[in-house]
Task: inverse folding
């Protein structure tokens, strides 16, 4: 009886602390996004006296020739293409790395780890991209995201592939499957759960990425950079800035609602990401 | 072996997968099928990933060592030896960025370990609203860093900010969080902890859940206090989870850029600059050689700190 009361008290205290520490900042974004400019500039945590959410929305979306729409298009292409390539390439590496013992394996493992730990060198990367005519365009940034994201995916895939019995490979081989068919029609479908995990985790990371677009895609907007660009432009229009924050928070929120389990599993089991 | 799910990936990373029992089984089976099986795992599967990794990651990393020894602008490039490094450790603004990197990395990862463990302890107890609390505390991990930075910049405003206005209500004059040079870096570090503590918590929860209840029951029978069973049973068994949290937050913290840039741009003055923001500033100013030197220094700092921790973790697991 006393223990039960104590449990509830602890729970209620924890909920109150969580509300103050975590929910207030998010509500602040929401409330400020709903206020007209004058009221928003007071920066108060208060219920809007006047609702201007729709007006703010229209203004943010249409400002600078619909830059936000362009940014969403760019970010969507960036996320979808780079995550797709990452998943396929990394699964291939994880597959051979786990299945085929080779003298190269220690070296490959070392490189995978170095990819997780070493911060990418900025200016030399730009130099390489310029040499390949990939600097400042979307394909270049897509390949950058793939290269930087591979290590994490390889680790995830290799760990999962070790749980798939080799008997399956052998049976398929006896049935006459070549390496491509074995991988794409036998192994790939079995990787479904880890693929979903890798996709959602990497999609959130690429979508939220600020640093790489800042360096490698100057001149073209991605969603995180609109925020950065609007920060100076909207310095007195907090309502618009927060409407923008709200809009770019929606995709990760939707991902989280639908894939909470996979995201948490991915980030706590293999996550060697900041 | 008491490796939690959270540490298996890290452990696997260095596990060469051969000398253990499954490896033995594998070898005998391969003999049975002849050498045919290895043809099913062709080396060319590595090529697409290897090309990208080599061209866009390894080559620039190696090239940075050379470029860091040059004076390099938009127009020409000139070999100048270690002058960039000398400048890096002579100019107070750059030195500050160097020391701040350590402060930021260590403060954030220490706080994430302590708070993450505390919150995990609360959230594994049988309290009401557990699922809700877990979901809420993890969500900031997924939100745009720039968005979080801008939001907290507003909340931490010294005069109109919600934080200081609330403190004023209970008669405390809040500090100038982001405009006081002695405080700015720590304020940003606090926000980084706010953002990242959810991940630490969930890693610790995975670790705690993985400990068999019998251990605690046995300890209870032997008359151990709650504190004793925490200190002598739970904490040692949480070692892999703890190391994972430390490594993750150090890798993230030492390389941290987005949040600092969104909140202070390294200011006021250079008081909250870190190596990553120095790299960006020098790049923007057109000092590409100096920027590359910053990259090499960051590379050395991160490896010098992470590799020994990693090595310690692996040795411990071999002992087990």
Result:
């Amino acid at each position: 009886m006393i223990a039960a009361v104590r449990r509830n008290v602890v729970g209620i205290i924890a909920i109150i602390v969580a509300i103050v520490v975590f929910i207030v900042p998010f509500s602040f974004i929401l409330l400020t996004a709903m206020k007209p400019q004058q009221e928003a500039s007071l920066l108060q945590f208060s219920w809007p006296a006047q609702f201007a959410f729709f007006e703010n929305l229209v203004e943010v979306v249409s400002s600078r020739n619909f830059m936000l729409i362009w940014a969403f298009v760019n970010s969507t292409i960036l996320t979808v293409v780079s995550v797709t390539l990452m998943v396929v390439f990394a699964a291939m590496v994880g597959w051979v790395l786990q299945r085929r013992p080779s003298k190269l394996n220690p070296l490959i493992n070392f490189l995978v780890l170095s990819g997780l730990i070493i911060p990418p060198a900025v200016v030399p990367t730009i130099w390489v991209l310029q040499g390949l005519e990939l600097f400042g365009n979307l394909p270049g940034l897509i390949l950058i995201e793939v290269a930087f994201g591979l290590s994490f995916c390889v680790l995830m895939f290799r760990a999962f592939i070790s749980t798939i019995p080799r008997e399956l490979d052998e049976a398929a081989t006896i049935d006459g499957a070549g390496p491509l068919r074995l991988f794409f029609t036998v192994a790939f479908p079995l990787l479904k759960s880890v693929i979903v995990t890798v996709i959602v985790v990497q999609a959130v990371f690429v979508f939220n990425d600020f640093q790489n677009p800042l360096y490698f895609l100057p001149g073209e907007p991605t969603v995180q950079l609109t925020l950065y660009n609007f920060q100076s432009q909207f310095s007195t229009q907090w309502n618009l800035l927060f409407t923008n924050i709200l809009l770019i928070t929606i995709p990760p929120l939707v991902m989280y609602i639908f894939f909470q389990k996979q995201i948490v599993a991915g980030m706590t089991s293999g996550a060697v990401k900041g | 072996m008491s490796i939690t799910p959270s540490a298996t990936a890290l452990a696997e990373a260095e596990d060469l997968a051969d000398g253990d029992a499954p490896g033995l089984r594998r070898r005998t089976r391969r003999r049975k099928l002849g050498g045919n099986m290895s043809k099913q795992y062709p080396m060319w599967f590595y090529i697409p990933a290897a090309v990208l990794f080599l061209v866009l990651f390894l080559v620039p990393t190696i090239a940075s060592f050379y470029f860091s020894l040059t004076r390099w602008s938009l127009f020409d490039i000139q070999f100048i030896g270690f002058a960039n490094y000398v400048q890096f450790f002579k100019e107070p603004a750059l030195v500050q960025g160097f020391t701040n990197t350590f402060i930021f990395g260590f403060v954030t990862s220490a706080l994430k370990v302590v708070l993450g463990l505390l919150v995990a302890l609360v959230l594994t107890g049988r309290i009401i609203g557990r699922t809700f609390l877990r979901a809420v505390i993890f969500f900031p991990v997924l939100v745009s860093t720039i968005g979080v930075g801008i939001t907290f910049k507003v909340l931490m405003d010294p005069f109109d900010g919600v934080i200081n206005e609330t403190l004023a209500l209970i008669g405390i004059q809040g500090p100038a969080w982001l405009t006081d040079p002695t405080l700015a870096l720590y304020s940003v570090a606090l926000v980084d902890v706010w953002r990242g503590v959810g991940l630490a918590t969930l890693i610790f929860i995975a670790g705690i859940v993985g400990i068999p209840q019998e251990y605690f029951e046995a300890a209870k029978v032997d008359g151990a206090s709650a504190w004793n069973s925490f200190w002598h049973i739970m904490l040692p068994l949480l070692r892999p989870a703890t190391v994972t949290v430390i490594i993750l937050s150090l890798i993230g913290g030492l390389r941290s850029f987005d949040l600092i840039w969104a909140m202070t741009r390294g200011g006021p003055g250079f008081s909250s600059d870190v190596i990553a923001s120095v790299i960006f500033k020098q790049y923007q100013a057109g000092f590409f050689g100096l920027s590359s030197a910053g990259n090499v220094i960051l590379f050395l700092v991160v490896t010098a700190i992470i590799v020994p921790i990693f090595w310690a973790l692996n040795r411990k697991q071999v002992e087990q």
Remarks:
- Residues 1-25, 27-31 of chain B have pLDDT under 50 and may be disordered.
- The CA atoms of residues 67 and 124 of chain B lie 51 Å apart.
- The two ends of chain B are 6 Å apart (CA to CA).
